Amino acid sequence: MRDHTFAKELISFIDSSPSPFHVVHNLKNTLKDNGFIDLDPKSRWELKKNGRYFTVVNDSALIAFVIGEENVEEQGFKMIAAHTDSPGFKIKPFPDMRVKDYIKLNTESYGGPILYTWLDRPLSIAGRVLLRSQNPLNPTKKLIDFKEPIVIIPSLSIHMNRTVNEGVKFNKQKDTLPLLGRLSEEFGEKNRIFRLIAQNIDVKIEEILDFDLFLYTVEKGLITGMNKEFISSPKLDDLAMVHAGLEALIHAKPSSGINVLVCYDNEEIGSATKQGADSPMLSHVLERILLSLGKGREDYFRALSNSYMISADMAHALHPNYEEKQDPTHHPLINGGPVIKINADQKYATDADTSAVYQEICRKAGVPVQKFVNRSDELGGSTIGPISATQLGIRCIDVGNPMLSMHSVRELGGTLDHEYIIKSFEAFYCL
């Protein structure tokens, strides 16, 4: 029986990454442990060939890269792109709500979560807190993770909603607000969430300026299935691809060009942020790399023309209970290998050229490949692929591992698929 090392490492990575800020924190630590140098975007960069570097934007997005021996303008950038965020719930700035002696939190949905999957689950809170500092332009930032289950979204009893099993339409302002507890003297009448934050990170309430806090399920990921073939975990979309890209970047043999891993934030809400794919974040970093290596703007455009990006975001597997939802001739299966995602309207960046390249990479790596196309009468989603390709004007393909329950609080993927895609990413970086 397989030892599922990569799957176990993925589960551990996800379990320690309850918010995009924690994802980037964990990426930074792993990269530093493997010889990568942290670059301050405010400082002048002095880069060298064979160097390993990374830089962070907004504490929630990261770009890491390894510089090869050859001229980058001739060899280009080999890039893998993924995203650090997942659908869920974000806590509003003044969230305290009292109903009799119950205290609940005011939240809004982030992205497109499957709402009912969040009900009746033990939830916690994690994110970042901004604290007062000597410089108003640079507040102090601290990560926070309550870790313990401190909130829950209780469902309404079937006795009070007899038609619940016939389908429920949720009101996000009413039906999905988490219960924090009962009123107590310890936390008083107001600012309860601020008191909890202050207690958790050991600061005074007056020091707290603001926060970005998200709900998450405290139930850990695990390996399941008759043959231990499935990964059941929160946030597979898209932390599985972040983890795969990280593993490949660290362990791939030196490349002739420059290997890049870009982990954007905010894909789930359209990517239109300074740390999202629809921003100049990546183009600025790529140009700074060339400038630091003594190259000019003409060399930068030459490098882009020789570049290739893998947009890595999870894909839809055939659902055994809803076979009719899949395209008649394209049936990706869990543990059948990476999925190339295709759309005639270019909601995915894949075309025949970029598809052919990735298929050859997988063939040489001994990795099976599948293809996904939406039913012609179903409107699918999109990814960071078309956005990144538009921003940079580069060859790009959309791929991802097949999964079920996408955007549920707990998703289902394959143990073997995670090994497959890491292997394909390593082969790509080694070209």
Automatic annotation (TrEMBL):
Enzyme Commission code(s) on record: 3.4.11.-
Leader peptide range in chain numbering: none
Any one GO molecular function term: aminopeptidase activity
Keyword Zinc: yes
Pfam families: Peptidase_M18 (PF02127)
Top-level taxonomic group: Bacteria
Assigned keywords, A-Z: Aminopeptidase, Hydrolase, Metal-binding, Metalloprotease, Protease, Zinc
InterPro entries: Peptidase_M18, Peptidase_M18_dom2
Record-linked SUPFAM superfamilies: Aminopeptidase/glucanase lid domain (SSF101821), Zn-dependent exopeptidases (SSF53187)
Needed cofactors: Zn(2+)
Annotated family: Belongs to the peptidase M18 family.
UniProt name for this protein: M18 family aminopeptidase
